[in-house]
From TrEMBL:
TM spans (from-to): none
Pfam families according to UniProt: NMT1_2
Official protein name in the record: ABC transporter substrate-binding protein
Family, as annotated: Belongs to the bacterial solute-binding protein SsuA/TauA family.
GO annotations of cellular component type: periplasmic space
Keywords, in A-Z order: Signal
Record PANTHER family: ALIPHATIC SULFONATES-BINDING PROTEIN-RELATED, TAURINE-BINDING PERIPLASMIC PROTEIN
Subcellular location: Periplasm
Organism of derivation: Cytobacillus horneckiae
Keyword Signal attributed: yes
Length: 332
């Protein structure tokens, strides 16, 4: 009887000790809702951060939603539908110009070049930008970063997109690729993996990179309301640390390894296409290797917006960019 009592009492003690520990672990997990502007191989480090458990290591439970477009992503952030937005930095400038009481702050950069490629319907062995003149060009949405970076690159090569091209800009982002596939346009501006898929299927041929042409800029950045960052400083730091780990992982691993890690996010895309897309982005330095958005990139962004006639007003770097979180993470 005494032996049975001792065993029962021991089990009781173990139980009451385990329950608080388990509860404590559960309470320590923080939920963070991310809204990504689109689903793209361009965002490979983000998917690596999820798949390799880097967010989980930081005690973060991530919910990822594709919010399809900069305007919808900003609406979700401003209405508290998401906590963190992954979108182009130009959106924070647009919101600021509207007199936001709670400004949108860029705190961790994911990509540092444009992510689109120039795709020609016909195969061109010796490409020259002059070949675009008088062609029908299926461009991106007006006011978005792809369109502005695209126009910047065209002007750099002496092409006025509104005078020298038959420029089509009235097609929604999601329908640009299908429109080209169905026969609209001689040239189109596309993200990966669509550009490589079209090339593999003979629909089009990649002839140039807008990322190379437009230089470094804060193309896709994690941003939150200023109030959220102030109220959740530890969460913001943990989030940034996870992204930094993923950036370093992608930088130090092969395109094949990265493709295998993120394949689950692109169910309808062959692994070789994912690998090819990752390699293209890595080779041109599109993936940022750390989360710091520097001032030179910020000024290049505003120059491109100004060139496109879309800059409401110049915004000081310190007003909408917070690098202290990323700097703290990198200094550890």
């Amino acid at each position: 009887m005494k032996k049975w009592f001792k065993i029962s009492f021991a089990l009781f003690l173990i139980t009451i000790l385990i329950i608080p520990i388990a509860a404590c672990g559960k309470d320590d997990v923080t939920k963070v809702r991310i809204g990504e502007v689109t689903r793209s191989i361009f965002y490979a480090p983000q998917y690596v951060a999820i798949e390799k458990g880097f967010f989980e290591e930081e005690g973060l439970d991530i919910t990822l939603t594709t919010t399809a477009g900069g305007d919808k992503t900003m609406t979700a952030l401003l209405s508290d539908g998401i906590d963190v937005a992954l979108v182009g930095s130009e959106t924070s400038i647009y919101v600021n110009a509207q007199g936001a009481n709670d400004p949108i702050i860029n705190f961790a950069q994911l990509t540092q070049t444009d992510g689109t490629f120039l795709v020609s319907r016909e195969k061109i062995d010796d490409f020259s930008w002059d070949l675009l003149k008088d062609s029908t060009f299926l461009g991106q949405r007006k006011g978005g970063m792809p369109q502005m970076a695209g126009e910047f690159a065209l002007k750099k090569h002496g092409i006025d997109p509104h005078a020298d091209l038959n420029l089509i800009q009235n097609v929604d982002f999601a329908n640009i690729a299908p429109a080209f596939s169905s026969g609209t346009g001689e040239f189109v501006q596309l993200f990966e993996p669509t550009a490589s898929v079209f090339e593999k299927e003979g629909i089009g041929h990649i002839v140039a990179s807008f990322g190379v042409e437009s230089g470094n800029l804060p193309y896709t950045v994690y941003m939150s309301k200023d109030s959220y960052l102030k109220e959740n400083p530890e969460t913001a730091e943990k989030f940034t640390r996870a992204i930094y780990k993923a950036q370093q992982w992608v930088d130090s691993h092969s395109a094949e390894e990265t493709a295998e890690a993120i394949q689950g996010y692109f169910d309808n895309t062959d692994l070789d296409i994912i690998e090819m897309s990752v390699e293209r982005y890595k080779s041109q330095g599109s993936f940022a290797t750390n989360p710091i958005l520097d001032q030179e990139e910020w000024e290049n962004l505003q120059n491109i917006m100004d060139e496109a006639g879309e800059l409401p007003q110049r915004i000081d770097y310190e007003t909408l960019v917070n690098t202290s979180i990323a700097e703290n993470v990198m200094d550890e």
